[in-house]
Amino acid sequence: xxxSLLPDIAAARAHxxxxxxxxxxxxxxxxxxxxxxxxxxxxxxxxxAPVPVVxxxxxxxxxxxxxxxxxxxxxxxxxxxxxxxxxxxxxxxQLKGELAAKGIHxxxxxxxxxxxxxxxxxxxxxxxxxxxxxxxxxxxxxxxxIEEALAQQIxxxxxxxxxxxxxxxxxxxxxxxxxxHLMTFAHGNGxxxxxxxxxxxxxxxxxxxxxxxxxxxxxxxxxxxxxxxxDARKAAVxxxxxxGVDSVLITRGEHGMWLxxxxxxxxxxxxxxxxxxVTGAGDTVIATLALAIAAGGTMFEAARLANEAASIVVGKFxxxxxxxxxxxxxx
Length: 331
Known about the structure:
It is a single chain. By secondary structure, the chain is α/β, with parallel strands linked by helices. The chain is 35% helix and 26% strand. The chain has a 9-stranded mixed sheet, sandwiched between helices. A hairpin with a 2-residue loop joins strand 12 (257-261) and strand 13 (264-268). Helix 4 runs parallel beside helix 5 and helix 8 (281-294) runs antiparallel to helix 9.
């Protein structure tokens, strides 16, 4: 079979779409997280157990999960409303503070005193080697009262948006009922919904404009093995038909992306020049997709822009972001 490459996007058209990012508003719904990095030096092995002793140097706090998606959107120039759930704890306060510092509206975050704010604490050496990670979380599904509060926030915040973006990390915010509320509102208001999915929730996303599984998620959801572009094509078709969505974009790391849009498909080779860290690349991809669609781009144009954004962000350490100027420079 001949594998078709997705059509190129002219530089003038790419710049036109990117220039519109600053006038677009995106509503992000999903699992917000706080990433804490305890950074230090390793000089010896502990006499108590065969583990390194890390001498603390400094701490860094970053946005994670749906909050990092919002951060990527803001870095690209968009106005963002972030809807999610935090606990009544110090991590929730810190997360809101980080969002405010980035210019992201956090007034629609719902505080649930029965839950912890999802926090990932990583112990990392000054050479960027991760020693361990401790997760603080309550990953059970939110209750009916919180689902109703989420639905109310979506109804209030998404009316002025051009796209609703769902960032599902399977930490309890995206339930069958909360997703049904969201889809009903979006369809009633003509809003496209794009989803960064989790496999156990795959059937929640019926009616979405686009889902963006990585290749491992696509394999699991289709009970298949993706080793070639033809494998990716078959998996994308199967997923699109199973879920009932318009488009499926399978991200395959160094093997590029495969897009199936309403039965028309094609391949995008990876364009990264150097890979430093793939952390958060999926957040950058879906943020760029959402903004390109909001700016009036086709699904193929959006995929092109997202592919280039991913190639930039994997060249940076940590959950980095991309600026409009960096993205324009790739065209």
